[in-house]
Amino acid sequence: MDGFQVRFCGEGYELKDFLKFHPGGINYLSGYKDKDVGLRMESTQHSQSAFYLLREYREGGRNIEMFKENEDLEYLVNWNEPMLKQVSNLGTKYSEWVHSPVNRKLRIFENPFLESLTITPWYFVPIVWIPIILYYIHKGHQTYSNIHKESNSVIWSVIYLSVGVVMWTLLEYSLHRWVFHLVPSGKSRALICLHFTIHGLHHKVPFDTRRLVFPPIPAIFILVLGHTLLSSIIPKSMIHLLLGGIISGYLIYDMIHFYLHYGTPDIGGYLYNMKRIHNQHHFTHHDAAFGISSNCWDKLFGTIIYLRKLGMGIKWN
Question: Which residues form the Cytochrome b5 heme-binding domain (predicted)?
Fold first, then answer.
């Protein structure tokens, strides 16, 4: 496609690079090429995040001066500089800024080595974690068999692995809801930096492919810590199998999360609905839809998003 221009408030916008990200899909947007989208966006109650993101695609570049009267917050930071040292200065504006998405590459640290630890291609995650999962499954089954001497040890190994996967889904939901979305007050510079590093940056630059999966280096430190703590309360015969299940659940979650941003699921399937829900979480309902690999805990805790019925299915490619 050569280009995909639309009009908004008398200005031209080039959306070619946004088509694959648009929550409503290409088929819902295609009829508006070379047309004004203002009335359509208002009639369909597009979120403030959608209007804010549209500014990224203005022909000639984002005009901060032009949008200042509409609360354009990008003047608060310098995108040519590492972001971590800047976000702590945003104070009470941090929450609004971090939930106002842009389509850019983001640098966290000045130090090249530290920065490299924060950037992860999606395929690197299974390369690192699958061998670790296999080790935990093998070690767990071996340990359980040696301790219990039971003929049905394979069945119990599968059960404990499955319990570990379920434990991960609850952990995934809990972390996302009560840790990642616990936005700090403007008074705590340290908590602002922590929140931005672990999750805020993903809401600020949701299309940055380098930051859609969790970097393995810090994740391994978390695993070591978790293994140490759980070993003091969980029987030796179960610990490796449960952790094998938890890590498996995490790997599934990370791969699904990447797919929900860049994949093109078939209309009507499970991942199709989860992609729609996750788009709602990013651009409309930051306080709901915390499950990524499963929405069962959202249903249980009342944070589920109910999707409206569409006239036609969404196509993202």
Answer: 1-63
Residue 160 in this model has a pLDDT that exceeds 90: yes
The owner of tokens 């999707």 is 307
For residues 272 and 247, what is the distance between their CA atoms, to the nearest angstrom? 24
Tell whether domain 1-72 is in CATH 3.40.50.1100. no
Q: Extract the tokens encoding 94.
A: 């941090």
The residue with tokens 């009470």 is 92
Residue 135 is encoded by which pair of tokens? 């080790």
| DSSP assigned state of 187 | T
For residues 199 and 186, give the distance between their C-alpha atoms in angstroms, rounded to a whole number.
17
Domain spans, the chain: 1-72, 114-301
Residue whose pair of structure tokens reads 């208002």 in the numeric block: 42
Question: Measuring CA to CA, which residue among 191, 146, 199, 151 is closest to residue 175?
Answer: 199
Q: Which of 57, 59, 83, 55 is nearest to 70 (CA)?
A: 55
Where residue 66 falls among pLDDT bands split at 50, 70, 90?
low
8 Å CB contact between 181 and 286: yes
- The closest of 130, 170, 132, 139 to 157, measured between CA atoms, is 139
Q: Answer yes or no: is pLDDT of 111 > 80.
A: yes
Residue 316 · residue 25 · CB < 8 Å: yes
- With contact defined as beta carbons under 8 Å apart, do 176 and 287 qualify? no
Identity of residue 1: M
The pair of structure tokens assigned to 315 is 């196509």
Mean pLDDT, range 64-90, rounded to an integer:
83
Regarding pTM above 0.90, the answer is yes
